[in-house]
Amino acid sequence: GPSTAEVVSLRRQYMNPGIFAYYKKPLMLVEGNGQYVYDEEGKQYLDTFAGIVTISVGHCHPKVVAAGQKQLETIMHTTTIYYNPEVALLAKELISKMPEGSGLNRVYFTNSGSEANDLAVLMSRMYTGAYDMISLRNGYHGMSEGMRGLTALKNWKFAVPQAFGVHHALNPNRYRGPFGYDDPDSAHKYANDVKDLIDHATPGKIACYIAECIQGVGGTVVLPDGYLKEVYKHVRDAGGLCIADEVQTGFGRTGTHYWGFEGHGVIPDIVVVAKGMGNGTPIAAVITREDVAMTMKTGLHFNTYGGNPVSCAIARAVLKIIDEENIQQNAYERGEQYMEGLLKLQKKYDFIGDVRGKGLMIGLEMVKDRVTKEPAVEETLQVMERCRDMGLLIGRGGLLGNVFRIKPPMCISEADVVFALDVMDRAFGEL
Ligand code: PMP
């Protein structure tokens, strides 16, 4: 095939310049195996960003590959106007993963998280007859025409005006927000901000509230315990539906629960899943109660590829692997190991301002000064490049671009975590 240089040139010549790439020196990946990926020279990298939190059970997992291959050879496309066993069976298996008694029992498949969120908010507007929606500042829900309004990253300059009817509540960021880790009442205060918005910025009746329980792109901001419970009450008092965006936090990644919201003791009205579900293959879903699902009977909605048989066969294999290979437990154990190691590094290096997360969804925030918390963006980029040289891929994000995002495939081993911590230590040491 073409070399990295040739591919870079092809991309420059033929692809939209808005598509950006990580790393100054272009990195082309030609092969993947479990938690590892390989460039054209055969150099191995430990992928601790898992694509973008998409590779849940490992690159090219043999059972995932076999399921996809088999389906490609059987029938690769039907659309929803015909019945297909893989699609219906996946719906049943996905529902079986919802908490007992949640009533979450209907699935609508789409291709991406953005589409699924679009559909979720559409259902909430149809169900409630209300228009206003609340999301969190610093939240990420997609880049579709609908989701650009809900996604709220201060430093992302959108080309279009924000959508009407969208209100952004305070980001419950206890590292940088007005109510910090040392405030025992922070969850309550952040929840009150949602109530304030409902009271002052809406007609008092809202369609929905949507949030990630750990903000992903926004830099692994963990919602405080007790926050969602209070917010859900305010939202329901205003007639709104509660939407859990589990695109990054689902399928065991938080370690303690299959779904992130379970760790907060709440039951959403709508759950949105994507990314890890297809292990990198495009598939997403909106999961609702039956009464919410019924709204879709009154108007036409259609999605040509949503829930295509190949992606569904692959997702079925993924769900099975998560159970068979104890993936959630591994996410918990490796998460603890990572956290312990990163906290040690924080003691060693002043520029590590905050380490936070749950399971294998970890953030490390780089600052120039622990008191002023001035973001160390250049330093973050430098460490990222050095890690890459040493065979470690790592994600980056956050409001200010100074947060490392560590979300590896959940099959990562103990030795891998030791390697990752060692490489990070060396890269930090060079700063
Ligand atoms: N929600 C969350 C929490 C996400 O992280 C993302 C993608 N980064 C999306 C929604 C949008 O998903 P997609 O890119 O598949 O449209």
TrEMBL record:
GO molecular function: (R)-3-amino-2-methylpropionate-pyruvate transaminase activity; alanine-glyoxylate transaminase activity; beta-alanine:pyruvate transaminase activity; pyridoxal phosphate binding
Cofactor requirements of the protein: pyridoxal 5'-phosphate
Superkingdom, natural source: Eukaryota
Chain segments annotated as coiled-coil in the UniProt record: none
Keywords noted in UniProt: Aminotransferase, Mitochondrion, Pyridoxal phosphate, Transferase, Transit peptide
EC numbers on record: 2.6.1.18, 2.6.1.40, 2.6.1.44
Any single Gene Ontology cellular-component annotation: mitochondrion
Localization (cell): Mitochondrion
GO biological process, one term: L-alanine catabolic process, by transamination
Complexes and interactors: Homotetramer.
Family that this chain belongs to: Belongs to the class-III pyridoxal-phosphate-dependent aminotransferase family.
Name the UniProt record assigns to this protein: Alanine--glyoxylate aminotransferase 2, mitochondrial
